[in-house]
Amino acid sequence: MMKISSSAEATFLEQVFAKYDFSKEDSALLADTLVDADLRGISSHGIQRLAWYLNMIKEHIIEPKNKPIILKETPTSLLIDANQNMGHIASALAMKSLIEKTKKSVISVAVIRNSNHFGTAGYYSRMAAEAGLIGISNTNTRPLVVPTNSKDAFLGSNAFAFTFPADPHPFVFDGATSVVSGGKIQLLAKKGEQIPGEWAIDGDRGVVKDANAAEDILSKVAFTEEQPGGGVLTLGGNSEENSNYKGFGNSLVVELLTGILAQGSISADTNTGKHDFSQFFMAIDPSFFGDLEVLKGNVESMFDRIRNLDKLPGTQIMIPGDREYKRYDENKAHGVSIDDTTTKQLQDIATELNIQSPAAL
Amino acid sequence: MMKISSSAEATFLEQVFAKYDFSKEDSALLADTLVDADLRGISSHGIQRLAWYLNMIKEHIIEPKNKPIILKETPTSLLIDANQNMGHIASALAMKSLIEKTKKSVISVAVIRNSNHFGTAGYYSRMAAEAGLIGISNTNTRPLVVPTNSKDAFLGSNAFAFTFPADPHPFVFDGATSVVSGGKIQLLAKKGEQIPGEWAIDGDRGVVKDANAAEDILSKVAFTEEQPGGGVLTLGGNSEENSNYKGFGNSLVVELLTGILAQGSISADTNTGKHDFSQFFMAIDPSFFGDLEVLKGNVESMFDRIRNLDKLPGTQIMIPGDREYKRYDENKAHGVSIDDTTTKQLQDIATELNIQSPAAL
């Protein structure tokens, strides 16, 4: 484990992406999305993804020189072809445009097809929040998630991010629609730990507690033709009696708004070959409905009442976003943590490209 | 238990609402929303609510002669004051307008304040689906739902409905964002049954299995100043380890889009006095992104693949909407079921208004 400053991380990443033929502007954006994830403590979506991205470039799954193509556009809507470049690039383009459109039209919507992984969903909806707007961001993913009563993974972990302007920071609800993301299981597997709850099942819908066993299932169902059965559960757990069909419904909503609406691949068809993910974005101007400062005050007052509810001893009530903004400030001041595997990967990448790897703090 | 034909139910309801000073058009709409819920097997939102609605009229919580007021309007947006009439009236007005707006502008949004209960969320999003559009419908409710780690109810069961055009019927995902609705617990309490899963907790976050004990908690937290603690859990159950903070986040999203955006009451403040609920609606035109028939074909093909996945013995994989459309056809043919308490209430209402109560089949 080492710590590096977020500015050193950004400088290094910009150099790497530039060497891999991304434009200066795209390199800066990609670096910012990864640094932003690390600062927020979402390290599963930070610099540890770099080697994976670079491999996909080498395999021509990602094409760094391609520019996104706007296929259709109206004052309230956009259909974009990401042109097989990083999902981040078309997504930031889409949200920038939606912010302009929404300030004129109260609401607007964008769909992206032919895309790749786009980092954290929250990055784009936070762009809207910073402009005083409500932001929504969705992506489909590789197939990991098992529908209610099914033995086989079919749905993606299908991220959903929703932001609402508030002080001292926006409300940011950002994560997989499934009970957990695949990355959370991967993290426990790396540490050799047990899964604490009902997160993953085997091919007979038996709950899998060993994170390595679960990770073994996920690596097959999400990335290969081999389908042993099992995968990640929908929110609501293994049994219908805790309404896991509601988690199933939430995952399907994202599938419909992404792969279906974009006419890209559905998650089930992305386990081999190119990613071909699709993304969905929306922005709404709350100031049409009321004065923005009044609305923000009402939000803050509601959140404070929730934080101060009577609670279980030794616990806190955290509003979505609280934790990541706290970590952001800490990591900005004290640096972001890089695990040993990633440290080694960064050194290899630096050597290959003849640049300096980021210095430990 | 008796069965009545849905047409007899509609005729009776139209007469009742007309006697209570609703306009002919509003009476027909209100009757249709209740009959529709009964036909779909959502009896918690059907004719069994009639006595409750009529009581609220007598108490001037609902004002039948008031007309909704459009406070602000653009080609893509609406802000409506329901003027303390039934939520159904302003909601149907909003969705009718959004359908027109969305056919011209790809997307549009409406918010309603100063409203009451609006029936099933799905009624309005299905209006969009029938017009070939994606529909979204939300409402906040009385406070029932306990945030992660909290001992006290604060959030509403906060309904979310999402529809997407498909054949032979649209995708309809419609329900409380909490693990279950209050109505589901009420139903078990009436039958004296145990709660099968983690649905409700007491003031120490202990899971309550006795439906009558749970119902007793809910009737206090949702309708009185008395706050014994406890309530309905968020989707994800009692413990953080199964990601109940995701269910909490989903509930908060609805709270932000309704009570906050409308500048009405938040759910926490509706336990006494007038309802003052708020509603949020949206419609999106999928045909901007692709040919509607192609999209519908892709949806149906995805759903068929899901339905045919390897499954647990003795189970089915149901797509949201499947169950309610099946019940709709059955109940249309064979009549809707009315429980004994409701049958008695309908007879009393008929006597009071000097009209015929619906005849048993």
Q: What are the defining features of this structure?
A:
homodimer; 361 residues; Ribosomal Protein S8, Chain: A, domain 1; seven-stranded mixed sheet; five-stranded mixed sheet; 42% helix; Malate/L-lactate_DH-like (chains A, B); Mal/L-sulfo/L-lacto_DH-like_sf (chains A, B); Mal/L-sulf/L-lact_DH-like_NADP (chains A, B); Malate lactate dehydrogenase (chains A, B); oxidoreductase (chains A, B)
Q: Output the CATH homologous superfamily of chain A.
A: Malate/L-lactate/L-sulpholactate dehydrogenase, NADPH binding domain
Q: What percent of residues of chain A are in strands?
A: 15-25%
Strand order of the largest sheet of chain A: 2-3-4-13-5-8-9
CATH topology of chain A: Ribosomal Protein S8, Chain: A, domain 1
Instruction: From the alpha carbons, calculate the radius of gyration of chain A and give it in angstroms.
Output: 20 Å
The description of the largest β-sheet of chain A is: 7 strands, mixed
Secondary structure class of chain A reads alpha+beta
User: Quaternary status of these chains?
Assistant: homodimer
Number of strands of chain A: 14
**CATH architecture classification of chain A:** 2-Layer Sandwich
Mean pLDDT of chain A: 96
Number of domains of chain A: 1
Indicate the low-confidence ranges of chain A by residue numbers.
Answer: none
**What's the CATH class label of chain A?**
Alpha Beta
Largest interface: A-B, 81 and 81 residues
> Percent range for helical residues of chain A?
40-55%
Shape of chain A: globular
Q: What is the terminal separation of chain A in angstroms?
A: 11 Å
Number of helices of chain A: 11
**H/E order of the elements of chain A?**
EHHHEEHEHEEEEEHEEHEHEHHEH
